[in-house]
Amino acid sequence: MGVLGSRKFASAPSHDDLQSGSSQKRITARTLCEITGTKYYLHNGEIGFPAERRVRVFDENDQLVGELPFGEALASAAAAQKDLVLRNDKSDPPVCKIMLYKMELLKKLFKKLGKQHTEEKEAKSKTMRLTTTIAMHDLENKRRKAVDYLKQNSILKFYMKVNIYDDENVQKGKLMLMNIAEDLKEYAKVKVSPMDEVPKESKGSQSASAGQKKPSSIDEMQKQADS
């Protein structure tokens, strides 16, 4: 049985955000490689091969297009509004790939940002564990600490330890969590996660946790607590 509070994060910049704006510096593939820690590949006119030199060309799905003169491969990429990227200049013939090079690098950037976002959220997660026997002044102290924490951090979890064989104790725990959730609604998005399973020994009892639909909101939880 628990309550989860979480703050909202700003989303990562879009592809258009990175390229638009006359006052902004246009981001380059080399810059994206530096940001993501990815090897930079020469592409298009940077490759510098003679037009007649043959290259082995693959498409963006890694399907072989064939061996073409470099000039023809470069023209094919330009006609498709894509890039010709030199992936291996040591092989004979050299290997090139027709693809949206910057778009692939942007995908890697967003993936990296998403991973950092997840790690940041996990690093800023805290858990508070409660019992139904907690003194009122201790509960108020935890509430104050929770508010202060959510002003600076992302996720705060509350867990309530209850005696599942004691219906009255279960109801008391639910009500205490509901009160905490109400207090934190102003500072965080609240998600209620009640206990989903009841031991076999207690299935025949009148427990509020058994045979009832899992509440998805505080109001539904209140209705079950009152029933």
SSE inventory with pairings:
Elements: E1 2-6, H1 15-19, H2 29-36, E2 54-58, E3 64-69, H3 70-79, E4 83-88, E5 95-99, H4 101-123, E6 125-131, H5 136-152, E7 155-161, H6 167-184, E8 189-193, H7 218-226
Parallel strand pairs: 2-5, 6-7
Antiparallel strand pairs: 1-7, 1-8, 2-3, 4-5
Helix pairs in contact: 2-4, 6-7
What does this entry show, briefly?
With 227 residues, the protein is α/β, with parallel strands linked by helices. The protein has seven helices and eight strands. The chain has two domains: 2-10 and 124-226, 2-Layer Sandwich (Translation Initiation Factor IF3), CATH 3.30.110; 15-104, Roll (Ubiquitin-like (UB roll)), CATH 3.10.20.80.
The number of domains is: 2
Q: How would you classify the quaternary structure?
A: single chain
Which residues form runs of ≥5 with pLDDT under 50?
Answer: 7-24, 195-212
**Major sheet, described briefly?**
4 strands, mixed
Strand arrangement within the widest β-sheet reads: 6-7-1-8
Structural class: alpha/beta
* Ends distance: 18 Å
Radius of gyration, in Å, reads 29 Å
- Under the CATH scheme, the architecture of the largest domain is 2-Layer Sandwich
Count of discrete alpha- or pi-helical segments spanning 4 or more residues = 7
Helix content: 25-40%
CATH fold annotation of the largest domain: Translation Initiation Factor IF3
As a percent range, the share of strand residues is 15-25%
Overall pLDDT confidence: 76
Dominant shape = rod-shaped
Q: How many extended strands?
A: 8
The helix-strand sequence is: EHHEEHEEHEHEHEH
